[in-house]
Write a structure and sequence with these properties.
The chain is an all-alpha fold. 76% of the residues lie in helices and 0% in strands. It has 2 domains: 84 residues, Orthogonal Bundle (Tetracycline Repressor, domain 2); 119 residues. The longest helix is centred in the first third of the chain and has 46 residues.
Length: 212
């Protein structure tokens, strides 16, 4: 005869193990995701600090607090690691810019200056090495297309319709007035302060949208 009490204990014990196993799987997946994000953020931090050829998987691993084998197993190569950072917008450039409301010129200037102060030097190094690394060429083509499309959206109230003969000319002028190279010339080559650079950008942008 089956002891019903023992049977109930057995069933309860079996049920209690299922949530525990599921919890362990979720916790493991979350830990792996956190490790991936740590590696990607470490990569971005190093990109901001040094030229690409100096960034090794060993340096990334050390910064992220993991082994280089973990980095290699997770991403395969340095190029694939960088691509994952770009695809996931780990620098937050696209995310921050897409929050800018259409027509809000002051917010456009604020977001650009914040971006260039944080990432400008790294962007300039990347641009300088574009011809050396296929990855950079692919990345920068996408970045240029995104920047121009973003300008078309945020400055839409100040632009003629896309079919207007002056549309491309005006959009190109805004592109030139918001380029990271301009930030570099003013901030690094001429040694202007962040606020002085902001004021130059502001004057150029307003002159384009008010006088055309």
């Amino acid at each position: 005869m089956v002891d019903s009490n023992k049977f109930r204990v057995y069933i309860c014990d079996m049920k209690s193990k299922e949530p525990s196993r599921s919890y362990q799987m979720v916790a493991r997946a979350e830990a792996m995701e956190e490790t991936t994000r740590r590696i990607q953020r470490a990569t971005v931090d190093l990109w901001r600090e040094m030229p690409y050829p100096e960034i090794t998987l060993e340096k990334v691993a050390e910064r992220a607090g993991v082994s280089s084998r973990t980095v290699l197993r997770r991403f395969g190569s340095r190029d694939q690691l960088f691509e994952s950072c770009i695809n996931n917008d780990e620098v937050d450039i696209r995310t921050n810019r897409m929050k800018v409301p259409t027509g809000d010129v002051e917010e456009v200037i604020r977001v650009l200056m914040e971006d260039y102060e944080l990432n400008g030097d790294a962007n300039i190094r990347t641009l300088a090495a574009e011809s050396e690394f296929d990855l950079f060429g692919k990345m920068l083509r996408g970045a240029r297309e995104f920047h121009r499309n973003w300008l078309a959206r945020v400055f839409e109230p100040y632009l003629p319709g896309p079919d207007h003969p002056d549309y491309d000319r005006k959009l190109d002028a805004l592109y030139a007035a918001t380029e990271v190279y301009l930030w570099k010339v003013l901030r690094r080559d001429l040694g202007r302060s962040a606020e002085e650079v902001r004021e130059v950008f502001r004057r150029l942008i307003y002159s384009l949208i008010e006088n055309d």
